[in-house]
Structure prediction request, 434 residues.
Amino acid sequence: MSSERLLGRPLSVNESVLAVLEQQVAAAVTLHGPLDLDLLDRAVAHLCEVQPVLAASIVPGEGGLRLEPGAGSTVPQVTVGGGFDTAIGGFGLGQLLLRVTVLPQPDGSHQVVVAVHHAVSDGVSVLALMGALWQAYTVLAGGGTPDVARVGLPEPVQQSLRARHSHQRVEEFLSRRAAFVASVHPAVVPPTVEPESPAARPGSWLNRITVPAAAAARLRELARARSASAHTLLSAALLVATRSLLPPEPAGLTLNCLSAVDLRARLDPPLPPGRIVQAASVAYTVSEVAGESDLLDLAGELRAQLHGEIEADSPELELLASEQAMEHFTTAPITLAVTNLAGRPFEPELPAELSADSLRLFTQPPGPFPLALITSTRRELAIDLALPRRWFGAERADRLTQATAAALTTLLGAPDTVEIALGRPAEQAAGAAR
Prediction:
């Protein structure tokens, strides 16, 4: 790799916002069997050799924040213990952009948490990184040497998008966005905690909903039969559950859903999932939701809206608009945000003596709204539901989780199929992952 490709660079506007927020994306998995920490350290070093951004840091520079590569010998070390909240915590300036934590569990298993700064990553790349970590570990455990296909520091994806969209088109999008924000007034989940009160705390309440693989397949069948998708069906269930927290009942209220959209396949050239870069944008959908809304009808409506937004290149223009005119960029209040990675089932390559379960995904909601992160494995589909503790108490998080599970259970017509785990801060949050 040439030294030129490893020169630092300024952060883009979007990257800088995520850096100021100290935002993270974290994935966790529970390993059963003997875990060799030395091999894990070597696997982490291998990942940093392949993608040097993982050993880079974000630092102040002339004109703003910069992404700077680390010295060749500077790689993150695996940390043992410290608690789940610490493992999934954000990243301050000057810290290495990868954190790997091993949390020993009372039953002898180990929860392994991989966290990467959101300024240089997203859910797709962090899940792929988790898979690459265990692939490297398995090769090393067998006495082999993992393949090294080095890449340089990632460039902001906006550079590729600018070649596709003119300045005028971005300006037109900004005008449409302003009109949209002025005309749409979605209801939001009312906070139960004052942000500056003693009850306000960092982090999130982390609850979990799991659906067995056979039931998840049934949800996909139901969605397809109504011209919907699994993503919009799960989003509909979450919106109906959110509606149950909002007075008055049972009238319809305008709610919106912010869906994460992966742009990798839309870039030129396309980026592979394993490339560590922030390549996600968002698309808005808006619907009238009542307490008795039909989930499948709502899912079909959301699917049509989402398809239209993507066909209109709105997620791409969203990123470019925020870069081009951040001071004029406006967003509507957010009822709910959903990141769905269930289309990329996680099945790590492991030595014969190890097995994995309880995959989790997390990023801190940047505002007073719930965030649902959806993943899948061969065994189950999971929704990790995060509500920021700065604005919400545990009771609000629990009610939303229970209402979502009830909506899915009713749709499946199979009691006891959908399971929930109500998490709590620190050690209790770790327990909810088991």
Remarks:
- Confidence is low (pLDDT under 50) at residues 1-5, 425-434.
